[in-house]
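Example complex used in Figure S2.
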Amino acid sequence: MRFLVPFAALLSLGAPALAQTEPPPGNDEGQLVVDVTGGRRAALPIAVPYMPTPQEAATAAGGTGALGRQVADIVATDLGNSGLFTPIGPGGLHAVSFPQVTAPDFAYFSTTGAQNLVQGFVQANPNGSLTVGCYLYDVAAQNELTRQGYVVQPRDWRRAAHRCADAIYSRLTGEGAYFDTRIVYVSETGPARRRIKRLAIMDYDGANHRFLTNGQWTVLTPRFAPNQQTITFMTYQDERPRVMVYELDSGRTRPLVTGPHMTFAPRYSPDSRYIIFSMAVNGNTDIYRIPVAGGTPQRLTNSPGIDTGGSYSPDGSRITFESDRGGSQQIYMMDADGSNQRRISFGGGGYATPVWSPRGDLIAFTKTGGFRIGVMAPDGSGERILTGGGYAEGPTWAPNGRAVMFTRGASQGELWYVDVASGATRRVPTPLGGSDPAWSPLRP
Amino acid sequence: MTRLTSLTAIAVALSLTAGCAHRRTASELPPEPPSATTAETDADNAGDNPIGTALPGSRGDFLQSVPADRVFFDFDSYALDDQDRATLDAQAAWLGRNAGVRVTIEGHADERGTREYNLALGDRRANAARDYLEARGVAASRMQVISWGKERPANPASNETAWAENRRAVTVVPE
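Predicted assembly (619 residues):
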């Protein structure tokens, strides 16, 4: 699979319309109309018509004409999911011909109320791959803001659509992308007393869902390695609750730590070399660090309280965690070697599951007693509740640090999404119940 | 009839044990729809304990001989009260009379804590019961603990009564 092909590669494919187009303008020429930090701005209207094909052709994923319509649907859905855009179309918009992809009918699209316009095409290549072209225009200024081309195997056509939406999102917001990502989570079914919990993985929008474990043993709290080569999670396999490492390529699973004690709450270091985890020894839980490849655990906390839920800063220099050493669950901070431990949450009530944003600017948490999801700065200031209700807990960050996914629901778990700026929430579809989501980084 | 039920239960337990012995990792198995025969059902003592037929040292004998197989805790607490200590005293006495029996002490929490904290809290509760039994003369080597956090509620309802039933440490005698 190849992504982000230099546009010269597309020109060589012989689409005449492409050759007439000017190179994309620099960033300073486009208007930055979406404010993702201030929040609560009106969503930006953006037209996404169906994408034509230069020549109808059958592929392993269906005809190119049908794929063009499906790609446009996904781009529109992705942009709408962000809460920052109001997609117009694809249904109901005038059809776009292949030559019009690079020469839009701005006069028509200005009548739709759209400020921006996404056009593209899907083309079958002689070697069986697909080329998906993706163009972003400013309707009022009548100019092109960005263009991208993706060459993918037919089975990866959805990824090309997510990449297109990512390019548009990034161009218009100035923020990092997050649509071409996956979620690993715990699929739940059955009554509460004997709930079946299986590890499952899916695209961020719920597509390409598959199970990684068969449900024989309860699994909890999966997390993606930043390098996306392994997943760590907790399992009750053989009735020995402990942290495992799952290798995505080989499908092999191995214990992270040997020994008789329960291990849980694993999370990777940003360089994917270490996992911090909690270990309960004779009723006392502390946080440890161990190389992913195995080795001797290094103890990082040493309090008589429950120390758990550790999460690294993006630069790997610090770890935020929760502890009840002061009498109630609160958020603490320490250096990566365990030194300099200090409490940072003082807002009243209990705090749990601190998770550092990939941007470094915020820590998401669960506020206990009411189960709400909030964020605060790493120094504990600026606490803000994003959403709550229904036993909300366990936030995980989108790779651009602008959205959080979490679990809602005790008797039947659900995955939910909240935009950090606007507080807009939406349910993430899963085939069964779901809990403990973990968002992958952008796919390579 | 009662005996037949017991034998069936034993047969099921044995078949489940046999399933465990393979130690198949999840990755070696294709994902299947969940079935009723997971090896990991309630390890609770609940279920088959016919009155008057329990063999010495059996689960049924244990349940007939002690006030309760479990002790309960206050919210976010792992402290034992007088009633808990009386229950555990009786359990320790029974374990003293049945020196060959090994037990698992399961710690649980109600749904009002976060998942990972509750795992740690369940471990605290199981260890509180374990430590008390050890102080009453039960050898540490005969006891193992496991925390289920909030993953295996005894009462699935979402109210004060259910939460109180779920904050527990259960001494589980093998079938």
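The interface with chain A takes residues 20, 23, 25-27, 29-32, 34, 38-43, 78, 111-117, 119-121, 123-124, 126-128, 131, 146-147, 151-154, 156, 158 of chain B (CB under 8 Å). The first strand of chain B starts at residue 70 and ends at 72.
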